Amino acid sequence: MQAALSIGLLTPYSGVYPAYSAHLVTGWMLGMGLDPVRQRTVQFTSEYTHMGSARASADAARKLLFFNNVDILSGLISYKVVADIIPLVEQSRKPGFFFDMGEYIPHFPHLSHDMFYASHQLWQSEYALGNWAHQRFGDGGHMIMPVYEAGYHLNSAFREGVIAAGSTHIGLTVLPFDENDPSKLDLDKFFSALAKDPPSYVHGIFAGAMGSRFMQKWIQSGFHKKIPLLINETMAYDDILQDIKHIDFEIFSSATWIREDQTKANQLFVKKFESMAQQPANIYALMGYEAGLMWRELLPYAQKKDWSAVKQQLRTGVIDGPRGEKNFYPSSGFALPTVNILKISTTGNKINKLILDQGAGMRYDAKEFESIHNESVSGWQNPFLCI
After folding, report:
1. pTM for this one?
2. Domains, the chain, ranges and CATH?
């Protein structure tokens, strides 16, 4: 009997999506055409990486590779810790296949031939939304976010999209962090400033429950439907909107994937996952499923431990999944996602989504983004939503 293919998962904590790892693995198995419950083809070993710091991730990677002796190193990591992982993966001569939400625009001072990335590319969603916002509402928008969210490239990507559309001015408010009250959301000064000098639109970037709290305060402020509100993609996920769907609300957002997409490939994924998991399909399940579609093709080589063949196919392979083409190796040029610009309304306890437009993606190594990498002094190593 052939031994199971072993995959080690670097698994940080997420208070926002505590079940993300289970959803990722379930999606991965379904993408490979395996029954997540009964299959014995693949074995996953998780290693806790706390908040996903470089040290915790490297320690966990070392244990998985050289103590557990896994065949493939995977899991959720930030690009900020890649430099600490690369030497370990290269030493093992096995493939590293990692997931990220796309909170940072990829930057690879050293591109390893052994490292592959399944990125959700949130920054692409932000870039397209910023570009559309300027064209739709004009110059003089305003971004607001807490310190945590400001530590990533989401607001920078939005700003670059706005600039590419011709903007000369966009405001920014970063809410201070209160160590004694981490969940504090004091918007009084912000709302006072809006009343004195209304911007053409407001773009909010908030993670987790703070996103729904911000939207509730926005409705109470009196600015709702007077100043257009644009929200980050993760704030527009159904589980976040559940908290406000009883309110008559109207917002704009962007997304590279929506559950309701009626394409055959997407509905197949949604049906498979929801039938197995008995809960709505989500972005982590999708990322796992896309990975599974790739590894389904790689399995015969991986079972023979032919890592050269596996890596070569990962460098050139492209899958056609629920949201179109996707590939996993940076220098082959990450497939550019189609970004849907959405108008979302909540009425009668229902969430309605209308696609208004489609925005184009941007190559991660475009010269326009050089300044972001040069100016970003963030020390945030934890993957987005891992708080």
Report:
1. 0.94
2. 5-120+261-332 (3.40.50.2300), 123-255+338-375 (3.40.50.2300)
